[in-house]
Amino acid sequence: MLSLAEPADVVFEIDLKAIQANFRTISALVGPHVKVAAVVKSDAYGLGMVEIARALANAGCDLFFVANLHEALLLRSSRINAAIAVFCDEFARFGQFYRSENLIPLVNNGSEMDAIRATGEPQTYFLNVETGFSRLGLTFDDVRRFYLSGVFGQHPPAVMLSHLACSDCAADATNVLQKNRFRAIYDLLKPTLGSLAASAGVWLDKSYHFNMVRVGSALYGLNNAGIQPNPLQPVVRLRAKVLDIRTVARREAVGYGATFRTARNSRIATAAIGYKHGLPWSCANKISVRLGGYTAPVIGRISMEYIAIDVTDIPETVCGIGAFAEILGEDFAVDELAAAAGANPQEVLTRLGAGCTRQHLNASSPSAPSVGKAPDAGDSHSPFALAV
Ligand SMILES: *Cc1c(COP(=O)(O)O)cnc(C)c1O
Fold it and tell me: Which of 81, 159, 235, 237 can bridge 126 by disulfide, Cβ–Cβ 3.0-4.6 Å?
């Protein structure tokens, strides 16, 4: 039935099975002794945190990283029976929520380490250390100071982690520098688990894996390291409805700024997607869409709600009003769209996810075993298997 509340002019599909497959691909690659944690921050890069965490929990993932406490509470209330770690939010102020909802804070600086110490009781936390990113994480001086004061003996971190700046470029010397710095602190603190690599870091050599990798992009099909052949399955498919088709005479302008001018008498289709939906404005005159097995170029600027497609070479039987033009799919991935637009693939993905109505494919039944009641806060202060 047609419903005005559900605009079907843009269809943004997210294949949960493909995300599970990518999780398994990475798990197989790192091997049984390295834990794979899923990064579902920023609403799982725009693709739907709760749906994706459920699918990944069903595939065996038992640790999720979210951006802040708000996301953590949302995920916990969706009854994900797994450990949830919060990249950055005030433990000192909101400690009660961390404890009552069994959430794991990251310690990103000295004052957060003081807050852990001030609890005076066992508190599971992950220690973020700075190795060359200059974003979050204890500096080496902080680490040394806390080490000498004995805090890490009384409050050992469950996981020690750091973040690589250049892991998408295997040859970059920054990788080795960060790994060596990480290794030095790891050997000093001897945490239960160490985690340095995110998605692209998985494809650096095994010495970067330590005991745990934290992957976001790769789960969502982004091949940041450009590995060939691409080991990841495409996750999203994006289609937009053709709203209008008209004949345009030779030498007429198409769209804002008249950046495209017809070289021949043309048939121009208008499809229902624009930068409002997250299609980058900068991909004007640079991408193509697929229509019934044919490829047709997007021409002129991207409008807020529309794109123009030159369908002159496509049979009218294939491209009529109401047909769907495929923008992303098997033949054209987010990586390629981002490259055409001169944009960052993660940015393109999060904007599309936020701008389009999403449809999740291949969700398994909600009664699946690993989706259930959140563990009680009193159960344990080590809510996931730390043994490797
Ligand atoms: C976002 C983020 C990740 C995941 O990065 P991907 O490259 O998308 O896998 C891992 N660790 C930290 C600290 C992050 O901020």
Answer: 159
Exposure of 255 in the CB half-sphere (CA atoms within 13 A): 25
Cis bond upstream, residue 229 (ω within 30) = yes
Nearest-atom number in ligand 1 for the CA of 220 is 8
How close is the Cα of 315 to the center of ligand 1, in Å? 45
* pLDDT tens, position by position, 2-50: 555 555 899 999 999 999 999 999 999 999 999 999 999 999 999 999 9
Q: Which of 35, 41, 179, 241 is catalytic?
A: 41
| Domain boundaries along the sequence of the chain | 16-220, 236-332
Burial tier of 385 (Cβ tally within 10 Å: 0-12, 13-18, 19+): exposed
* Pairwise CA distance, residues 243 & 303, whole Å: 14
The answer to whether residue 35 is catalytic is no
Give the pTM: 0.91
Interatomic CA distance for residues 375 and 335, integer angstroms: 38
Measuring from atom 7 of ligand 1, which residue has the nearest CA? 199
